[in-house]
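Re: How this chain folds, sequence and tokenised backbone to follow

Filed under: protein folding, tokenised backbone structure, sequence and structure records.

Contents: The amino acid chain and a row of whole-number tokens, matched residue for residue.

Body of memo: The sequence and its backbone structure tokens, given next.
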Amino acid sequence: MLLCDAAQVADGKLYVLGGGWSLTGPEPMPSAIALKVDVGWHEAETPHHWELYLEDADGQPVMVDTPEGAQPVEVRGELQVARPTTVPPGTPVDVSLVVNLGPLPLSPGNRFTWRLAIDGESREDWSLGFTTRPAMDAEA
């Protein structure tokens, strides 16, 4: 997983713009998460459900106001890969995913973490932390 300004997938490859940051803001900025997932050979040909959750420093869901009321910042999707005929059986199959996000209204001077879950499973290293800069005081 990699935080970046923007990203896309083309021909199975990740194309990343402004990647590798961990400090943003304080004003809301567009961002993206680029992911490379290694799918086990035995898990190929099977649909997998993935979810990204944004949490605050206390591990609580980050909520944003929407027309339907406050909602947690979450992104979900499905992935499925075919077993390539050009690699030896048993080889993990990689798949690239990108989530481009509009500006999120995050509180300045705080720590946040994106957490990934695949098929309901999450691991400690499936997370991506970042910090928002403190707000600048407006001078008169």
Remarks:
- The two ends are 42 Å apart (CA to CA).
- The chain has a mean pLDDT of 93.
- The CA atoms of residues 41 and 89 lie 7 Å apart.
- The first strand starts at residue 2 and ends at 4.
